[in-house]
Amino acid sequence: MKKRFGVSLSEGTTQDLNAVASKLGCNRSAIVEKAVELYLTELKHASEEHTCLGVMIITKKSSNVPIENVYEEFKDVISGYTHYHVRNTCVDVVLTAGSSSRILELRKNLEGCGCLVKYVILH
Ligand SMILES: [Zn+2]
Protein backbone atom coordinates (compact mmCIF):
# COMPACT_ATOMS: atom_id res chain seq x y z
CA MET A 1 0.00 0.00 0.00
CA LYS A 2 1.34 3.42 -0.94
CA LYS A 3 1.35 6.39 1.42
CA ARG A 4 1.04 9.91 0.11
CA PHE A 5 2.70 12.96 1.66
CA GLY A 6 4.00 16.32 0.48
CA VAL A 7 7.68 16.81 -0.33
CA SER A 8 9.35 20.08 -1.27
CA LEU A 9 12.12 20.00 -3.88
CA SER A 10 14.28 22.78 -5.24
CA GLU A 11 13.42 24.13 -8.67
CA GLY A 12 16.57 22.57 -10.17
CA THR A 13 15.86 19.13 -8.73
CA THR A 14 12.26 19.36 -9.89
CA GLN A 15 13.40 20.21 -13.42
CA ASP A 16 15.87 17.31 -13.40
CA LEU A 17 13.17 14.96 -12.08
CA ASN A 18 10.70 16.07 -14.74
CA ALA A 19 13.29 15.69 -17.50
CA VAL A 20 14.33 12.19 -16.41
CA ALA A 21 10.72 11.05 -15.93
CA SER A 22 9.86 12.31 -19.40
CA LYS A 23 12.92 10.75 -21.01
CA LEU A 24 12.37 7.36 -19.32
CA GLY A 25 8.60 7.47 -19.73
CA CYS A 26 7.89 6.76 -16.08
CA ASN A 27 6.18 8.72 -13.33
CA ARG A 28 7.97 10.96 -10.86
CA SER A 29 6.78 9.02 -7.80
CA ALA A 30 8.52 5.85 -9.03
CA ILE A 31 11.80 7.74 -9.48
CA VAL A 32 11.54 9.46 -6.08
CA GLU A 33 10.71 6.16 -4.35
CA LYS A 34 13.73 4.40 -5.91
CA ALA A 35 16.02 7.34 -5.04
CA VAL A 36 14.84 7.33 -1.41
CA GLU A 37 15.28 3.53 -1.19
CA LEU A 38 18.85 3.78 -2.50
CA TYR A 39 19.73 6.66 -0.17
CA LEU A 40 18.22 4.95 2.87
CA THR A 41 20.16 1.78 2.01
CA GLU A 42 23.39 3.80 1.98
CA LEU A 43 22.57 5.55 5.26
CA LYS A 44 21.66 2.28 7.00
CA HIS A 45 24.66 0.59 5.44
CA ALA A 46 27.10 3.08 6.94
CA SER A 47 25.55 3.04 10.41
CA GLU A 48 25.05 -0.66 11.16
CA GLU A 49 27.79 -3.30 11.49
CA HIS A 50 26.95 -6.25 9.26
CA THR A 51 28.41 -8.86 6.97
CA CYS A 52 28.80 -6.99 3.72
CA LEU A 53 29.12 -7.97 0.07
CA GLY A 54 30.14 -5.39 -2.48
CA VAL A 55 32.42 -4.24 -5.26
CA MET A 56 34.96 -1.43 -4.97
CA ILE A 57 35.95 0.38 -8.13
CA ILE A 58 39.27 2.07 -7.53
CA THR A 59 40.88 4.62 -9.81
CA LYS A 60 44.53 5.42 -9.27
CA LYS A 61 46.08 8.61 -10.55
CA SER A 62 49.48 6.96 -10.81
CA SER A 63 50.65 3.37 -11.05
CA ASN A 64 53.19 4.27 -8.34
CA VAL A 65 50.51 4.29 -5.65
CA PRO A 66 51.38 1.19 -3.52
CA ILE A 67 47.89 -0.14 -2.90
CA GLU A 68 48.92 -3.78 -3.19
CA ASN A 69 50.20 -3.42 0.40
CA VAL A 70 46.74 -2.23 1.43
CA TYR A 71 45.18 -5.24 -0.32
CA GLU A 72 47.51 -7.52 1.64
CA GLU A 73 46.54 -5.85 4.93
CA PHE A 74 42.83 -6.29 4.15
CA LYS A 75 42.90 -9.76 2.57
CA ASP A 76 40.37 -10.90 5.22
CA VAL A 77 37.68 -8.89 3.38
CA ILE A 78 39.01 -9.03 -0.19
CA SER A 79 37.78 -12.03 -2.18
CA GLY A 80 39.66 -11.04 -5.31
CA TYR A 81 40.51 -8.19 -7.64
CA THR A 82 41.32 -7.38 -11.24
CA HIS A 83 43.48 -4.61 -12.61
CA TYR A 84 42.91 -2.65 -15.83
CA HIS A 85 44.63 0.13 -17.72
CA VAL A 86 42.28 2.57 -19.40
CA ARG A 87 43.62 5.71 -21.10
CA ASN A 88 46.68 6.09 -18.82
CA THR A 89 44.59 5.38 -15.73
CA CYS A 90 44.79 2.29 -13.51
CA VAL A 91 41.41 0.88 -12.52
CA ASP A 92 41.04 -1.92 -9.98
CA VAL A 93 37.80 -3.81 -9.39
CA VAL A 94 37.80 -5.45 -5.95
CA LEU A 95 35.20 -7.93 -4.70
CA THR A 96 34.76 -7.48 -0.95
CA ALA A 97 33.00 -9.72 1.56
CA GLY A 98 33.05 -9.58 5.34
CA SER A 99 32.86 -7.09 8.18
CA SER A 100 31.35 -3.80 7.01
CA SER A 101 33.58 -1.81 9.37
CA ARG A 102 36.70 -3.52 7.92
CA ILE A 103 35.51 -2.76 4.39
CA LEU A 104 34.93 0.88 5.37
CA GLU A 105 38.46 0.93 6.84
CA LEU A 106 39.79 -0.50 3.56
CA ARG A 107 38.04 2.28 1.66
CA LYS A 108 39.49 4.96 3.94
CA ASN A 109 42.99 3.51 3.49
CA LEU A 110 42.65 3.52 -0.30
CA GLU A 111 41.33 7.08 -0.29
CA GLY A 112 44.24 7.98 1.98
CA CYS A 113 46.56 6.73 -0.79
CA GLY A 114 44.97 9.24 -3.16
CA CYS A 115 42.67 6.77 -4.90
CA LEU A 116 39.15 7.60 -6.03
CA VAL A 117 36.89 4.84 -4.63
CA LYS A 118 33.31 4.00 -5.56
CA TYR A 119 31.59 1.26 -3.56
CA VAL A 120 28.67 -0.71 -4.94
CA ILE A 121 26.61 -2.60 -2.35
CA LEU A 122 25.52 -6.02 -3.61
CA HIS A 123 23.31 -7.20 -0.76
ZN1 LIG B 1 27.01 -3.79 3.44
UniProtKB/TrEMBL annotation:
<dbReference type="InterPro" id="IPR038733">
    <property type="entry name" value="Predicted_DNA_bind_prot_RHH"/>
</dbReference>
<dbReference type="InterPro" id="IPR050192">
    <property type="entry name" value="CopG/NikR_regulator"/>
</dbReference>
<dbReference type="GO" id="GO:0003677">
    <property type="term" value="F:DNA binding"/>
</dbReference>
<dbReference type="InterPro" id="IPR010985">
    <property type="entry name" value="Ribbon_hlx_hlx"/>
</dbReference>
<dbReference type="InterPro" id="IPR045865">
    <property type="entry name" value="ACT-like_dom_sf"/>
</dbReference>
<feature type="domain" description="Predicted DNA-binding protein ribbon-helix-helix">
    <location>
        <begin position="1"/>
        <end position="41"/>
    </location>
</feature>
<protein>
    <recommendedName>
        <fullName>Predicted DNA-binding protein ribbon-helix-helix domain-containing protein</fullName>
    </recommendedName>
</protein>
<dbReference type="InterPro" id="IPR027271">
    <property type="entry name" value="Acetolactate_synth/TF_NikR_C"/>
</dbReference>
<dbReference type="Pfam" id="PF12651">
    <property type="entry name" value="RHH_3"/>
</dbReference>
<dbReference type="GO" id="GO:0006355">
    <property type="term" value="P:regulation of DNA-templated transcription"/>
</dbReference>
